[in-house]
Specification:
five-stranded mixed barrel, 16 strands, 234 residues, alpha+beta
Length: 234
């Protein structure tokens, strides 16, 4: 089955396509867009099949609606407080829940300072079609590890899910080119939200414009755009 999938890497797949195999002991990791069922792999969204060595496959699609997945890190917006639980907009079809105890050092007496409208960076503890998604802002060791309330002085923008994956890729060429324009801080959520902060609001707006403009550009067009932005900022 792995060989069958490898032959399709880089090609467009459609929902309903099925890959069958007999060796059920073969380990294949199915990412977004693929679902494994015993001795079959079912394609559940349209897009280009991608592969990461040695045995991870996923479908790279241009969908706009984010679908929560367990373990993914996202940027959410706190919209309400219901008892001991915060309701968080993560860009999906429904709000996610976030317990006040899901923060580092939080106890019944020491509650986190979270207000409606705050941005939170967290990961999904529960995310499936039959249950309300649940966020946490701690890792398996109870540490924040960069998660929690953030966002003072920056700007939150919405980009495509494909661009987010490019920003989060190891040794991302896009991030390296952005860093050459001028210094900035950036937090990227897999739900298509990016928070940026720079020395001035003018530079923040330049960053936001660059991210929104460069997605469908060739590398040459992107280099030229970033060079003009760097010359204008100097």
């Amino acid at each position: 089955m792995s060989d069958c999938l490898k032959e399709k890497v880089g090609e467009v797949l459609l929902p309903g396509d099925i890959f069958s195999f007999e060796n059920t002991s073969e380990k294949v990791i199915c990412g977004p867009g693929l679902r494994r069922n015993v001795d079959e792999v079912l394609v559940c969204k349209s897009g280009i099949l991608r592969h990461k060595h040695p045995n991870m496959y996923w479908v790279d699609s241009q969908q706009k609606r984010y679908v929560p997945a367990k373990g993914e890190s996202v940027i959410g917006i706190v919209t309400a407080k219901s008892g001991d639980v915060f309701k968080v907009d993560v860009g999906g079809s429904e709000l996610a829940s976030l317990s006040y105890l899901a923060f580092e050092g939080a106890t019944k007496r020491n509650r986190p300072n979270v207000q409606v409208g705050d941005l939170v960076y967290g990961q999904f503890l529960i995310a499936n079609k039959d249950m309300e998604p649940e966020l946490v802002c701690i890792d398996s060791c109870g540490r924040a590890n960069g998660m929690g309330v953030f966002g003072a002085g920056g700007l939150l923008i919405k980009v495509s899910l494909g661009l987010v994956r490019r920003l989060l890729a190891q040794q991302s060429a896009l991030v390296k080119e952005l860093e050459q324009v001028f210094p900035f801080e950036m937090v990227v959520g897999l739900n298509g939200r990016v928070w940026v902060k720079a020395q001035s609001m003018q530079r923040v707006q330049v960053l936001a414009s660059l991210l929104e403009s460069c997605e469908n550009m060739t590398p040459q067009q992107r280099h030229a755009l970033f060079r003009r932005a760097a010359n204008g900022a100097s």
